[in-house]
Write a structure and sequence with these properties.
membrane, MetI-like_sf, globular, mainly alpha, about 280 residues, about 0% strand, Putative aliphatic sulfonates transport permease protein SsuC, MetI-like fold, 13 helices
Length: about 280
């Protein structure tokens, strides 16, 4: 039977003290710095585990140096120039190879993604080459370009090209037909649709490939520098390994990862600015 105004509330229906207390608002400081806080804690736990593995004898310091020894070798390497002088040649090769791959990957990706027949023609070739191991192709690059700068840059171009190209093709071909049809209905021509509709809509989906390519640039660069050369972070790491200079070897690896983080941060800022219009449309 339905409860009327004159009927008293049952015990189970009566509001409790818990119902009357408003929910506790989240700490604004924790909400703002949540990722930073957990990141610092995670990094601290990783360094602690790393130190314990070596200090407890689980792994010999001949194979794995402690975090403090690695950091000390990193600082000393920058101070005396033994490490600092190796970073710039590697960064220069990576940037040149990345820029070449960026231009080729975006241009060819837009071209192939814009025409269905090009996608069908390129699909089997794309499927074959994108799955080839970079290490298997090192002798080919050396054979064509020698062991000089050209081969190292060519290896970086190859490693960076495919993520950019694949994402560009997918981004352009995946532009919503609703946008294209709306532009045609309003009387827009092909050139206007391509420059003002297709490209702006595709660019946010291209950037993940660009960031992945930037990470691939330094991964491929180390393999390229092991082929031969006088300077480079990969050569520094390999030389330290052959001399059993374990802290110096890990200091080189740390420097390589640090450069990668800086590059990723720069690309994140660029992506944030280039795609700001999209956040304005999707923000609540």
């Amino acid at each position: 039977m339905a409860t009327t105004i004159s009927e008293p509330l049952r015990d189970s229906e009566a509001p409790t003290d818990r119902d009357l207390v408003p929910p506790k608002a989240p700490n604004p400081w924790l909400a703002k710095f949540d990722r930073l806080l957990y990141g610092v804690i995670g990094l601290g736990l990783f360094l602690l585990l790393w130190w314990w593995v070596v200090a407890s004898g689980q792994v010999s310091d001949q194979y794995l140096s402690t975090p403090q020894d690695t950091f000390r070798a990193f600082v000393d390497g920058l101070s005396d120039g033994t490490l600092g002088s190796q970073i710039w040649p590697s960064v220069q090769r990576a940037v040149i190879g990345f820029v070449i791959a960026l231009v080729l990957g975006v241009a060819l990706g837009i071209l192939v993604g814009s025409f269905r027949i090009f996608q069908k023609l390129a699909e089997p070739v794309l499927l074959f080459f994108r799955n080839l191991s970079l290490l298997a192709l090192l002798p080919v690059f050396v054979l064509f370009f020698g062991i000089g700068e050209e081969s190292k840059i060519a290896i970086v171009v190859w490693a960076c090209f495919w993520p950019i190209f694949v994402n560009a093709v997918s981004a352009v071909s995946g532009v919503e037909r609703l946008l294209l049809n709306a532009a045609r209905t309003l009387g827009a021509g092909r050139f206007y649709i391509f420059t003002q509709v297709v490209l702006p809509a595709a660019f946010p989906a291209i950037f993940p490939g660009i960031r992945l390519a930037a990470a691939n640039a330094f991964t491929a660069l180390v393999a390229a520098e092991l082929v031969g050369g006088a300077q480079g972070i990969g050569i520094y790491i390999n030389t330290a390994s052959l001399r059993y200079q374990t802290p110096q070897m890990y200091a080189g690896i740390f420097a390589l990862g640090l450069v990668g983080i800086i590059v990723n941060a720069i690309l994140t800022v660029v992506e944030w600015r280039v795609t700001s219009w999209q956040r304005g449309l999707t923000s609540k």
